[in-house]
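Good morning N.,

You mentioned wanting to compare the apo and holo forms, so I went ahead and generated the holo version with zinc ion. This is what I fed in:
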Amino acid sequence: MPTATFRFYDDLNFFLPRRHKDQAIQHEFDWKASIKDMIESLGVPHAEIELIVVNGASVDFEAIVQPDDQIEVYPFAAPVDLHPKVALRPPYTGRPAFILDQHLGRLAAYLRMMGFDTRYRNDYHDEELAQVSHDETRILLTRDIGLLKRSLVIYGYYVRETHRQKQLAEITRRFTLRPLIEPFRRCMKCNGVVHEVDKAEVEDGLPHGTASYYQDFHRCDSCGRVFWKGAHHERMQALLDEIIRQS
Ligand SMILES: [Zn+2]
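and this is what came out, ligand included:
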């Protein structure tokens, strides 16, 4: 049977079964398949791949695997000195915007806290997540490998960490968010943009005593929630400082 040899680099090995990790994989195949399909059948979702090299030349996802091909697969930011490089997707431009699956609600709130436009609902279906990610050029963050194999998904990433604070540091590193952080510019609840507001405008709805302790108030343009620099704000600021330290 025809065989192709696959080698996956760096953290793409995360997706491989133990017997395949950091190994040259001899893969037998008896059907005509695109390199994208064959890579995904080995376990690695296309959204995580940055560069594919076949017999020394960079190729796109649609290349057909031939017998005896030597295939190297690289993740984002892998240092590969090769020219020309075929881009597998257009470069992401502008401020990163995200959409998160239903397992990542806390991470969504924290990304909003850091000022990133982040869509999240706990009832999005897989189809919707993929479609919105595609239509609105949002980076899909998920704990579901299958979602990142959907062809609609262009920009996506599997969140490795399970602890939410570590997740936030991981995403901050992966997408180089640090210089882009704008603390408390978005509502953690609804993703709306938050603006400063006169105390007199919001005084009536505040909990008893709050108006006498605090002077600076902000309000979410979308849901109308009012924020002030109380204990919650201090906890969030401390968390943010910690994330910046870790990332
Ligand atoms: Zn809001």
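The longest helix spans residues 231-246.

Happy to go through it together on a call whenever suits you.

Best,
F.
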